[in-house]
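User: Fold both of these, please.

Assistant: Here is the first one.
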Amino acid sequence: MKRSLFSTLAVASSLGAAHANLYYIPDEAQESLPLKWSVGINVIWDDNVNPTAPLFVDANANGTLDAGELLGGSDDEALSINPFIGLSFVSITPQTTWDVYARLGAIYYFDEPEGLGSEDLYGQARVGVNFTHRFSERLRFSSRNFIAYELEPDYAYGFSTARQTGEYLYWSTDNSVGYRWSERFATYTGFVLSGLNYGDDVSSQDRFTWSVYNQFRYQLTPQTVLTADYRYAQTDGDDLASDYEDHYLLGGVEHRFSPNTILIARVGAQFHEVDGGGDATSPYIEATMRSQINEAFTVRGFLRYGIEGYDTVRSVLIPAVPTPNIAVYEFGDRDTLRLGVAGEYTVSQMLTVFGGLDYIPATFDDGRLVAGTGPVASGGFDEDIWNAYIGLSVKFTEMLYGTVSYNYTDSESDFPDQSYNRNRVSVGLRAEF
């Protein structure tokens, strides 16, 4: 019972708080793994490499923004290569566990994309360091750290949905202390720091967040832990984006249906307060699951619903007479659902099929005018994003692997020039040693 209550499923107390990978279920590694390297290259064809172009928001002499200053996506086809190198290792002692991984790469376009601000070379990096130290059977310290510097929005991460011109830097550190007060009762208390930063070509999208949380845990059965959470988060916005605060009151369950099937879920209320704007209250739900259906088939999924503070500064077309113009609004209430499912099926020792689907609908309300000329308040805008992919992985030798995949993205938006379709095909080869 001790291990069930105080297992590293408890680290999931921060699930969703740090906006890390929404598929993540923190099972602690059970054995050390030696240093493992991977080296590879992908060739990618993209039929809409820059589906949304940057927006000019400089006002004219009369304080208005012309519709002609808005540049749309160019539907620009491009062929690129993506070389990369990666490493991972796990070190376990009776007191301490280290789990480290990193991947560095680049994307090079043979023909520079036509979109304003585009370049032919972009950097790519992901680094994660997870650390757990057990002071005793009752007391432990855990730290999860992640850094990403990349071009594409990854929909399995809970922040960006819009395709920006350049790379973004996202980082987070989640640190907590767990204490088991009795055989059935334990607590986790921690703090999270995270940041999202873009280059000079993207304004009003940078964010810095600090948050604290406390989770109470009660072992109901050997397979089930009940949880109660309080979280507080404060976010600093950039440029036209306001600062805001969030309070979360959540109840949840962590249940292991079998040794290979795990569910972590929490539901409750979110209280969202925007500086200089209105306050909003929303239901809040987060859940993630993983199941090894059989030896060949693995499936995982996530769901999150609440108010998000990313991508909240948007341009709106104002149908003025005689000439429409563009105004910029900050939306204090962005209700967003994030739903994802992914699976992997091993056909044989040489062939594996994988695929996944992401769905992200959002509604923007409580908008206030921050640039241009238009109504002081605005709202009721919707944006839906579908992203689906399917692929094959082939094991040629013990060291050499090949992959081919197809990715389709569809965005339907009430905002100007944010609706697009995108197709990508990738062929890759990697070696692991």
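And the second sequence with its predicted structure:
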Amino acid sequence: MVRDTVEIFTGGFNMLKREEAFELVKKHVKTKNLVKHCLAVEVVMRALARRFSEDEELWGLAGLLHDLDYDYTKDTPESHGFKTVELLKDLDVPKEVLDAILAHCEKKEIETKIEKAIYAADPVTGFIVAAALITPEKSLSVIDTDFLMRRFKEKLFAKGANREQMKSCEELGLSLEEFFSLSLDAMRTISKEIGL
């Protein structure tokens, strides 16, 4: 009980460090594109945390680790999320992060701000990547929010990126346009790492 109280007042100084989390991603996530996806969701979550004056490290950790179990659960989607929680159970990962990981794949009711954020952030990164890849330059630098809004209306474009899930950003008080703008700006900061 004392430790929980200490973490509340200190911002969770015992929390798993970002570098340690990234080592876990490299160990468990074997697909290069999925590692890039985890990095993209992390950077969008950090931007959302800044926007709402939330804990950037905490939100970033949720984004980075959200698909940690994907290679283990791709054939058993009902286990997705639960396996990640199991992989992290002996590490200093706050319950908020574990709940966000479960919420992103609908294994837990979406209630808190971090859960709403990751639920919307997960598909938006894939949508933005798909938009960049249809340009001749294959680069985030040549697309803008208007381009994303037009693509959003095309039901066949990036149909794997759930439109309703992205629109759930409105539950955070963000319009879809604002959400696209924030997410695109965030992803541009790691364009080298994600190859776009």
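Residues 2-194 form a domain with the Hypothetical protein af1432 fold (CATH 1.10.3210).
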